[in-house]
Amino acid sequence: MLPWCLAFLFLWVGGAGAAGSSPEILFSSPSAYQGDVVLLKVRVGKGETPMISWLEREIPMVPLGKGEWYGFVGIDLNCEPGGYPLKISAMPSGLEKGVRIKVESKDYGERRLTLPREMVELDEATLKRVRKESAAINAVLETSSAEPFWKGAFHAPVDGELSGTFGRRSFINGEARSPHSGVDLKADQGVPVKAMNSGRVVLTADRFFSGLSVVVDHGGGIHSMYFHLEKILVKEKQQVAKGEIIGRVGSTGRSTGPHLHLGVRVNGARVDPLRLIGLSKELE
Ligand SMILES: [Zn+2]
Prior knowledge:
The chain is mostly beta strands. The protein is 13% helix and 42% strand.
């Protein structure tokens, strides 16, 4: 494996990492874009713990040993471009460092569809159902185990081609709809779907748009979502290991054929799952 700094063009920001000096920080890239994931590596003095905050949220960090820690920063798909301060404090010394993550806009393309009105407009009962389902999933995504269950790399949940259509904006009959906040992975009906990493199942449901759906909390602010399943093979509150089969590929809900819709949230931000898979390979 390449050293981190070469593999990722990591930039060390700050001085020496000896005890008593301020924390040092490495980013996987000098700038980020909407929907991106940034891998952080932090070095603090002996016996110190880093506390990292970004956009008023704490970034959970995992110890690597020898005073080094790592964690992921998620940049939401709709994050306004600009520079955002990231603060690192070493505890208990209280030594601090502030850096900025520059977020750039990214054009993921758009799709315009014209569909018959009856296919697009939802009746009152369906609207009510959709709102209830959206509140339920948002509540689940707001909470995450402080203790990370995940370890090392995040793997693709199905074998085969990873077709990334993350972030694409869609317009139906000229009206803006929510952008595609995950990727659609090509797979045949019935193919096993595996947990990307270890975690706890926090939602299993049959939803109007996403059909049979599973949400896994990997702890430390990371969630993965698996939609349109033919079958769910886990229960809520169940602990799952990395690679464990949680369901089978299907086409339930609003879907035009068998595929897996995979979504990832990092600290609540909608990010490109393929970025998390790619970046986390370095952690194997
Ligand atoms: Zn999708």
